[in-house]
Amino acid sequence: MKSENFETIAIRTQTERSLHKEHSAPIYLTSSYKFDDAEEMRALFANEKEGNVYSRYSNPNTSEFIEKMCLLEGAEDGFATATGMAAIFTTFGAFLKAGDHIVSSRSVFGSTHQLLTNVFSKWGVTFDYADLDKPQDWEALIKPNTKMIFVETPSNPGIDIIDLEFLGQLAKRHNQLLVVDNCFATPYLQQPIKLGAHISIHSATKYIDGQGRVLGGIILGYKDLIAEIIGFARHSGPALSPFNAWILSKSLETLAVRMDRHCESALKVAEYLEKHPKIKLVKYPFLPSHPQYEIAKKQMKQGGGIVTIVVDGGIDAARKFMDSLQLFSISANLADTRSIATHPATSTHNKLTEEERNIVGIEQGSIRLSIGLEHINDILADIEQALA
């Protein structure tokens, strides 16, 4: 039975059953594969025949995970990586060379900032940052040697948003590759390729797993572009392990119901904190006070599970609040079943200068709240007592 419904696709897309007729896909913990004869081996290595050659290239578990994600995101093909940062590095490495230029959103994850400033810069790749809230500035930054437009939306941790249809049209007008980090939204809430992106990237460690267990990443996009990704990745070796792929594929079966709960609770937390006298600022895409609220409503199904706040009183007040939390975990991760509080200025974004952090709205009092799946009354009670 064919279905266009997200939940059914996520649950029923599965690798072909073996002779054992298993109901749930098994884990294929094998590094290599047997060929029927010398000719089959030759044909597989020559790409004249489809099949598994080596688990650094493909594996039944990673293939199932990729197939599901392609169907859910509206992509033609994909490649699964060991981490989300491996997905970003592999995408940059496959398409960029010395002399190329990137236009990137200023609000990017700390490690992505490090790739742009300290890694690819050594190899002759230059970049310019643009602000998500100033779309009018993006076109002027495109140069003759610009190869890629890269954006996080919603951004980490500022929860800023940009119109992906606008960026898609901009990329088309200038023949640019538009790459979107879709980690915070997941394919359940946002599908960048349908809005004009060429490639969509996820840290599957986050909501795709959703339970803080395994690392993983995935690159999704048009088949000809993914062919270049695969060509680079086969030799650089960032492949996802079969075990992690099995976990992530199983996790997709509950992504929709988990995201519904994350979003419902996060909105209630955001609405509560927006009225609290000790909170200076609340950022959440589906709050009417969010500067890009209308864009968020247009391109996202719901607002996601992340709420970013600024506690009045700076770093001392932020630390007091975090140290007073009892239910929330203090962790650098996010998108877990367990609610998490993070202080970006001293953790995930500590390599940015104070000026760079201020530009993207990361104050000393900023705290990123990843709202988990606990009962909403308990989540709110913990926040309330921590702010008392």
From TrEMBL:
Keywords: Amino-acid biosynthesis, Aminotransferase, Methionine biosynthesis, Pyridoxal phosphate, Transferase
GO biological process: 'de novo' L-methionine biosynthetic process; homocysteine biosynthetic process; transsulfuration
Keyword Amino-acid biosynthesis tagged: yes
Gene Ontology MF, one: transferase activity, transferring alkyl or aryl (other than methyl) groups
Reactions mediated catalytically: O-succinyl-L-homoserine + hydrogen sulfide = L-homocysteine + succinate
Annotated positions of the N6-(pyridoxal phosphate)lysine modification: 206
Pfam families assigned: Cys_Met_Meta_PP
Keyword Transcription: no
Signal peptide: none
Enzyme class: transferase
Cofactor or coenzyme needed: pyridoxal 5'-phosphate
Pathways per UniProt: Amino-acid biosynthesis; L-methionine biosynthesis via de novo pathway; L-homocysteine from O-succinyl-L-homoserine: step 1/1
EC number: 2.5.1.-
GO cellular component: cytoplasm
Listed HAMAP family: MetZ
Description of how the protein assembles with itself and partners: Homotetramer.
Family as reported in the entry's similarity comment: Belongs to the trans-sulfuration enzymes family. MetZ subfamily.
Functional summary from the UniProt entry: Catalyzes the formation of L-homocysteine from O-succinyl-L-homoserine (OSHS) and hydrogen sulfide.
Entry protein name: O-succinylhomoserine sulfhydrylase
Organism: Pedobacter petrophilus
